[in-house]
Sequence to fold (300 residues):
Amino acid sequence: MESLGLAYLPHFDVGGTVHLITNNQLGFTAEGDHGRSSLHCSDVAKVIGCPVIHVNGDHPEEVVLASRIAMDYWLKFRRDVLVDMVCFRRWGHNEGDDPTFTQPLIYKTVSNRQSVPDLYTDGLTSSGAAREEMLSSAVSDYTKELNRCEKEIKHYSPPATHLRGNWSGMRWATEQITEWDTGYPMDMLKYVGLKSVEVPSDLQMHPLLMKKHAANRKKWVEEEAMIDWSTAEALAIGTLLYQGFNVRLSGQDVGRGTFSHRHAMLVCQDSDKAFIPLNHLSESQTAFLEVSGLSYCTLG
Fold:
């Protein structure tokens, strides 16, 4: 948004920019209609009348063509142009992530789709443009080169000299600690802890969350054992709600937690509908937890 807003201002014009959106349609695990008001994520380019080229990411040659059109336009007119590569992300955004926690239905479809390399390879071999042995050899050679580079990186550590001059005289600040009594009765903490993983009978919780997240929390709370970070969060938020203080979590993926730890919002695996247990502490509840998956909400 910043670069678009500055695109044609005096003293900021750089002769146009080629923008590329790798549009995997998921903002972490927040769907598009939870992250923007427009149909396309590229609609922000309309503020400067920027041409937008939508291209299917399943077709590499069309992506190349779209990129060349964008470059030709930029070279001729020196104006902004945007390529919106519509694709999907097969896995979560880190190696420990499971996107079915929050988007079960779309990932039933994704899991049954071929990968882009497999689709492209099948197209080349079926059309006779390339032999399977040749393609396998090319992939093998490239993989070997990547592995070689990875081994070299592991043994190289560049010296960090860029901050020595500016930071050499800095010292740690002295500790200034203020203690507050923020405790809450144990029986209420137990109540909130159990309610934080309680869902309606018709909500199909993810099996892994039922086994690990919900079962472990119930056990820790009932046995007054050591708890994890997410349980501590739930107790803190839940007791605030119980006292009548509204709580808002804003930012991408805050309902589930970026590292899949929070799960303050649970998604039914059958209906794709979200449920926030802490908003159902009691029938007379007056304060609620709002989960906003948009970073803009932290502003203002």
Observations:
- The CA atoms of residues 206 and 241 lie 26 Å apart.
- The longest strand covers residues 18-23.
- The chain is about 35% helix and 10% strand.
